[in-house]
């Protein structure tokens, strides 16, 4: 019974979120992409209804372990208000991305490291799908990515593989290695990418990881410590100023 109620609540929240965008000045599309092993990947693409603009620079959002693309708080809205398209991806085993090629549910709780290793390629698949479907509206010549914890690691590794690199990467609660996703070498490869690393006041481990990762950065590696005593996706929830800080920082790179 409890699980049923939670499912109904989750569907209600998704409906409310979609309805808000539908009734506003933004267009929202559901993105479906098949991973290399057939896993079904889902994401939402949202962009302003602005007839004066032919194309929109894009910001990709990659959540942390155990969360999903509905947990971004005010960040998505702040980015949209600045005129960007936002691609919020449900990573494999999370949110709507829970069905494998046999349409059997697969949760992150049961996944092995070999499945997490597919995250960077999964993200590239979704990006390529968006580029194919919405080439007249969305472009990735001028883009940025925000990732939290394993989402931040995925952002770095995916960016390293893509031919067109992002202008900037925001890492929240970064780690050097998680689920066998090791990122220092890839950071060193991203020689024209600027980084913003964000941690909570008490995030000792992430701050240590941040200091280590900074050694590999070839361009700017800015840091910000939130005054709240939490971590991960909850930083965005408990620190209302954080969304504005992130969107303003990205705007310096992607603004027309």
Description of the structure:
It is built from nine helices and ten strands. The protein is α/β, with parallel strands linked by helices. Strands 1-2-4-3-5-6-9-10 form an eight-stranded mixed β-sheet, sandwiched between helices. It is globular.
Main sheet: strands, sense, barrel: 8 strands, mixed
Molecular shape: globular
> How much helix, percentage-wise, in residues?
25-40%
User: What is the count of DSSP helices, taking H or I runs of 4+ residues?
Assistant: 9
SSE string: HEEEHEHHEHEEEHEHEHH
Strand content of the residues, in percent?
Answer: 25-35%
Structural class: alpha/beta
Across the major sheet, the strand order is 1-2-4-3-5-6-9-10
Tell me the span between the first and last alpha carbons: 51 Å
Looking at how many chains there are and whether they match, the oligomeric state comes to: single chain
Number of extended strands: 10
Averaging pLDDT over every residue, what do you get? 91
Which stretches of 5+ consecutive residues score pLDDT under 50?
Answer: 1-20
Gyration radius from CA atoms, angstroms: 17 Å
In short:
With 256 residues, the chain is of the alpha/beta class.
């Amino acid at each position: 019974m409890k699980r049923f109620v939670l499912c109904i609540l989750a569907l209600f929240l998704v409906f409310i979120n979609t309805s808000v965008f539908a009734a506003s000045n933004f267009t929202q599309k559901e993105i479906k992409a098949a991973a290399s092993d057939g896993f079904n990947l889902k994401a939402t693409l949202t962009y302003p209804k602005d007839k004066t603009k032919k194309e929109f620079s894009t910001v990709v959002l990659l959540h942390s372990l155990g969360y999903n693309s509905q947990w971004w708080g005010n960040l998505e809205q702040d980015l949209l208000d600045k005129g960007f398209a936002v691609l919020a991806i449900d990573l494999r085993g999370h949110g709507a991305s829970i069905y494998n090629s046999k349409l059997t549910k697969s949760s992150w709780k049961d996944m092995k490291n070999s499945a997490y290793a597919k995250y960077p390629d999964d993200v590239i698949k979704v990006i390529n799908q968006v580029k194919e479907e919405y080439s007249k509206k969305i472009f990735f010549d001028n883009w940025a990515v925000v990732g939290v914890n394993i989402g931040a690691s995925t952002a770095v590794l995916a960016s390293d593989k893509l031919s067109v690199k992002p202008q900037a990467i925001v890492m929240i609660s970064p780690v050097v290695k998680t689920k066998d996703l090791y990122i220092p070498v890839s950071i060193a490869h991203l020689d024209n990418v600027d980084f913003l690393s964000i941690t909570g006041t008490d995030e000792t481990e992430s701050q240590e990881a941040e200091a280590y990762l900074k050694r590999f950065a070839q361009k700017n590696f800015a840091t910000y410590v939130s005054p709240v005593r939490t971590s991960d996706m909850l930083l965005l929830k408990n620190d209302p100023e954080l969304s504005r800080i992130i969107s303003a920082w990205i705007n310096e790179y992607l603004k027309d």
